[in-house]
Amino acid sequence: LGDKNEFDFGTGNFAVTMWVSGGGASSGGLFTKDDWAGTGSGIFVYFSAPNYAYYNGVGVTSICVSKASWQHISAVKQGTGTGDVKLYCNGVQTDTTTETRTLSNTRSAIIGNANDINNAFSGSIDEIAVFNRSLNASEVLNIYKRGAYRLNASYRVCDDSACAGETYIQILNSTTNNSKQALNKSIGRYFQYNITYSNESAY
Fold first, then answer.
1. Contacts (Cβ under 8 Å, ≥6 apart) of 17
2. Residue partners of 186: CB distance under 8 A and separation at least 6
3. How far is it, in rounded angstroms, from Cα 132 to Cα 116?
4. Alpha carbon distance 87, 17 (integer Å)
5. pTM of the entire predicted model
6. pLDDT tens string for the chain (203 positions)?
7. Cα gap 40→47, rounded to integer Å
């Protein structure tokens, strides 16, 4: 992403959110603006096997343990002082840490690695978002829900208003099948549909 001033937060508030999965046995950068040593006063969200974590220039704080399934992680700085960085996994706060550095340097902001390009993340990253302000707990939870919950629809066509003896037919809903689908059912007088939400997170 290059050396962008937008990612030099100084002592101000910020938030970084993303979906991540896997990671393997080797550590790697998730969203960083620093070398792997972390000495350049840049933001450092990374995979410290087996945890997704935040580095504040002094120590590492785990956000949550990695899994093969998708998880949503967030690091949110709000105000100053002890515990000013809140860490969330799947919309739930898991820990806090303190950021005393002035986050500003001339390094590049990088997704999936660090500036020395020797610590690539071997898992998957999706829907990363960076804010130059804080997010409250409700906002973090809502971002998670928008990605975690899936709308499921099913239908049935019936010859009586009670739809006695008729079963619902699931309308396919997956990330690999987003095209229009024909409702393959004989013509009837009555049509009913059922809408539910499902949460695919394994957290």
1. 72, 73, 74, 127, 128, 129, 131, 135, 140, 143
2. 157
3. 25
4. 10
5. 0.76
6. 899 999 999 999 999 999 999 998 899 999 999 998 888 999 999 999 999 999 999 999 999 999 999 999 999 999 888 889 999 999 999 999 999 999 999 999 999 999 888 899 999 999 999 999 999 999 999 999 988 766 677 888 888 888 888 888 877 655 444 555 566 556 677 878 787 766 655 43
7. 18
Residues 72 and 65: beta-carbon distance below 8 Å: no
CB 55 within 8 A of CB 75: no
Cα separation, 66 vs 202, in Å, equals: 11
- Closest by CA to 64, choosing from 29, 98, 21, is 21
- The type of residue at 16 is V
User: Beta strand pairing status for 14-21 and 124-131?
Assistant: antiparallel
Residue 57 CB-half CA count within 13 A: 15
Return the DSSP state at 182: -
In this structure, are strands 51-55 and 71-77 parallel, antiparallel, or unpaired?
Answer: unpaired
